[in-house]
Amino acid sequence: MCGIHAVISVNGTASPDLGGALKQSLQNRGPDHLGQACRTLQATAAGNTESQALHLTFTSTVLALRGDHIAQQPLLGPSADGSVLCWNGEAWRFDGQPVSGNDGEALCSRLSQPHPDTPRQDHVLGIFRSIQGPFAVVYYDDIDRRVYYGRDRLGRRSLLVHRADDGSAISFSSVAGQPVTGWTEVPADGLYSLNLDACTGTLVDYTRLVERHMWLDEEPEMNMVSNVGLFNATAEKPDGNDCQLQAQEEGSIVDDLESQLMSSLKLRVVDVPEPPRAHAAADRDVRVAILFSGGLDCTVLARLAHELVPTSQGLDLINVAFENPRLVAQYLKQPEEARKMDFYETCPDRITARKAFAELKQSCPGRSWRLITVNIPFEETMAHKPTVVSLIHPHDTEMDLSIAIALYFAARGTGHAYTASHVWQPSMPLTTTPARVLLSGLGADELFGGYARHDIAYKRAGYEGLVEELRLDVGRIGQRNLGRDDRAMSHWGKEVRFPFLDEELVRFAIGLPVWAKCDFGIAEHETGIEPAKRILRLLADRKGLPIAAREKKRAVSS
Ligand SMILES: NC(=O)CC[C@H](N)C(=O)O
Prior knowledge:
binds glutamine, Glutamine Phosphoribosylpyrophosphate, subunit 1, domain 1, alpha+beta, 7-stranded mixed beta sheet, 21% strand
């Protein structure tokens, strides 16, 4: 992940010191390069004779993951144009067409292309709207003297904003800097822009200066969800509630899901470059790792990634378990023969992860898989807590912290590596995954109906209830705290990618009738596969993962 930072200041120097701690945080996110660009301009509001000097400073750190070189940032427009682009993102497609080479450079060159028939602002907005993929961006458009900033429509990358109390400066940053408090998250509900010519006097009246540009350039239709696609709200099953889909029809929906997931994964796992300073210590070529609870979603991702990643590369599966003093006390009360392994091996996710690891190894021979078991003693959690607290700011609840701590240690990727055997062994040496791309199965539960409350909604109000519950869930993905998760994980110079949140895949999933995804009306399916996320389970079954396909979901709700 990259780190981006920008300051617009009315009285600051052109190049304020970033501060050691913030600079370090940004460099943790983007270890491959750090660059800065400054601009000073005279802002003159219409009808106003007085002008105001504005100092703009842009900083980017780069985690280079696209193309065959490190695309240094901030990216600059052609020489006559003083535009500056700070890009923390992966533009997978422009207007539906895959992007080859470095996406940041491709974006920058699009922004600076001539466009004689389109007003400047429409040109810029059109380009940002055409991007499919996660991003946080700050773009200074020198032609129109505007600063654009925002996050993609699903909010997959972090961007915070801070306004100085005296109106002297506005700052943007991937992570909170100095001062440590007072930052707010930029909402992912559109792209924002600031007309610098209106910024005379102070920046106190910031809300008046900012414009929000919607992701869609027309009024959204009623069933539009997350500005991505139309939700299929059909609640009447053509053949009646108790009728199972015809095997042939079901088979072709599973085919479609497979091809959608494969195209999403192809963008995310193929052509991941080797780290620029090739890990001298790394004894194996691993560029992609999977955040691995052993559940259905991440196991399917691992299985399909195997079909795309060259077999010369390994794939790491990262599973985290925490020492919980209360549970450890209970564990120690058990008779000795019940305590053959260590405490971490009793955690439910560890048990499923080992099972799924064994199944993957069997179904994908020829791949070098590693299960990395990450065990975190209580003192270690406590020692890292202040770092995680500051990374997740402005999120600050206990719930935020416990989720973020798990993601933080998973992303660090340091644990015991199991290759040949999936059975626990004592005193294994520690290793760290060299992979800089991490895959997460997030989104599958919302898209395909994996939570217990989806079943409850069906029992309460049939397909109509289920439709409403799923529609709400998908609509909330964009507010699902992905910014917080990004801040916690990127700390280790890693980038998390969400194959289930690919715009095309989301559009496909929400376009299916609910019974094609999770038919709670058919409790007994002929395959013995349960209703929650049935379509994904059927895919797992087809791919040689019968155990993962039938694994029961543990989480009660979200
Ligand atoms: N990780 C990032 O956000 C870097 C930006 C860009 N995709 C690159 O690889 O250069």
